[in-house]
Amino acid sequence: MSTPEREDAPGVFLPWDSEFFGFRIGRMKASRLTPDALRAVLAWATAEKLRCVYFSADAECAETLALAHTGGFQFVDLRVDLAIPMPSAGAPPAAPGFRPATTADLPALEAISRVAHRDTRFFKDTQFSATRAADLYAEWIQRDFRVHRVFTVPGNAGYVTCQVDSATGTGRIGLIAVAESERGRGLGHGLVGGALRYLGESGCREVRVATQASNVAAQRLYQAFGFRTAEASATYHRWF
Question: What is the model's pLDDT at position 22?
Fold first, then answer.
């Protein structure tokens, strides 16, 4: 059992991640490190008996990057966040047959998700089981189906998940993937177009999406719609 989190604690315990992977996981609150902050987070992680701590670091802070290295943090990913204001001229066209997913679609979409996101941090960090990393994205599709919106195309050739924050007027594209056998037909472009149309109709004034710096194809896809880089962060894992 985790002790109640103090407001001044340098991190938070992550119960969902911990239960899913089968060991205790936490996340740092701050995006920058100082020597004192590093000592504090290591002491906190030890007291919480954590096995892994996630750290999303300010990629522009040289001191933070150096301290992360000396503090035993393992660099696993460079995350790029892109944003676009909703186009005043209307949303781009969606893929033919673009529609909300149903329960009957989920098995096919989960099968795609298990193999489509292998350039992400849970696969790059080999201390996570590749099998459980694949399970994570299948669970992600299920969660977005329950809580947000998932869209697909005929033949379940691909999917895109969408989230709406009505309080801020911000939409987010979560996961997007095309079945390997269906790539090269422009389905990715049609899925993004459909997502933008849905998010615009939902009242979003801005749409955001995150991808890996190594995923050049995804960045080019979003840039073709007018997305521009909003921020970048270095992702680290610290194992104990």
Answer: 97
**Class level of CATH domain 84-233:** alpha beta
Counting Cβ atoms within 10 Å, is residue 139 exposed (0-12), middle (13-18) or buried (19+)? Answer: middle
pLDDT at 3: 52
H helical segments located in 174-226: 187-201, 216-224
pTM of the model: 0.88
Between CA 195 and CA 7, with CA 143 as vertex, the angle to 5 degrees is 105
- Give the Cα separation of 108 and 156 in Å (integer): 6
Q: Which amino acid is at 95?
A: A
Q: What is the largest CA-CA distance in the chain?
A: 55
Per-residue model confidence (pLDDT) at position 1:
47
Q: What residue has token string 């997913």?
A: 101
- Cβ atoms of 112 and 158 closer than 8 Å: yes
Residue span(s) of the chain under CATH 3.40.630.30 come to 84-233
Strand pairing class (99-100; 149-152):
antiparallel
The pLDDT of residue 6: 72
Beta bridge partners of 80: 211, 232
**Residue 90 confidence (pLDDT):** 64
Report residues of the chain scoring pLDDT below 50.
1-2
Q: What is the pLDDT of residue 102?
A: 98
Q: Token digits for 216?
A: 């050049």
